[in-house]
Amino acid sequence: MSRASNLAGFTTAIGVPPSSLNLGVITATSFSGSVDASNLTGTLPAISGVNLTNIPAGQLTGTVADARISTLTASKLTGALPAIDGSNLTGLSAGGVSDNSTGADSFGLGPNALNSETSGNYNTALGDDALTDLTSGQFNTGIGAAAGKKILDGSQNTCIGSYAAWKLTDGDENTIIGYNSGSSLTLGNSNTVVGRQALVSLALGNFNVAIGHEAGDALTSGSNNIIIGNASDASSTTVSNELTIGNSSINTFRCNTQSISSLSDGRDKIEVEDLPLGLDFIDTLRPIKFKWNTRDGNIKDGSYEAGFIAQDLQSAQSTSNADYLKMVMDENPDRLEAAYGKLIPVLVQAIKDLKSEIETLKSNG
Question: Contact at 8 Å (CB) between 339 and 326?
């Protein structure tokens, strides 16, 4: 005998009904014993997770369509879940390692994420096409759509943000953070890029640092540059070994000191001699007062300053065979820059020349 309890209209003991017996509509708040699913026909109503409590996971068998599952609360399941392998996951666009036969501890989540890895180790990919071409690199991280997509066998690259370094094929130790940042880089090592579309045009380069929104976005090749600030750019598109701080709107440089020091140790210098340039050289220069009217337009326009014209300094250097003064930076011929501080040694020598002349006049007086 079996008993069906809490059945609307049925509270009495009945025998096991034959399969052909039509019981009509049965409304139940609980069932005890086992129910043979083959004797149940029709469509069950939607089951809410709040109505499922204390379900032994081992009793859940068969295939459940993903459309029937909305929210699954782990606390509602008791017991041990059986092992889950890829053949049991259908309709889940997780991506992941496709055929890693020798590597270890890599993780991919998202369509085609880490989809080509065969022997890599400790790689993490999260997002559509993240690290999708990586085969054998290790310690790489790609987070975001197509982040690090084309890296083949590089190692220790960190690409965070949609399309971050997505064209990089061969490189190590790059840190690229920000939407589309470093997106043209194909070959390069140890570049550090932080900011939306920072270093976006660099195709080949090493040891560059670009920090800020669109920082260094004009640089196409070059190495060992430091570019800091919103829309800050190096002096040219191919320069190396240069530091740039700020964009053309920055007109004040502040620091808790009045000068910047650099190497000047006598033990690192040879062929030392007195500077042959002095008063005569200074006499060729033309100090001017001027009003800014830049060709590209910047915050200086309309303001007055005192200084020199770069072309004049260039001419004075060339005439005196003194290019070693390096008063003009001409990495970009269309935008000459001047370093007035380079005049200090010449000014000191000019003062000495002038003093000598005064002393001569005094002695002859």
Answer: yes
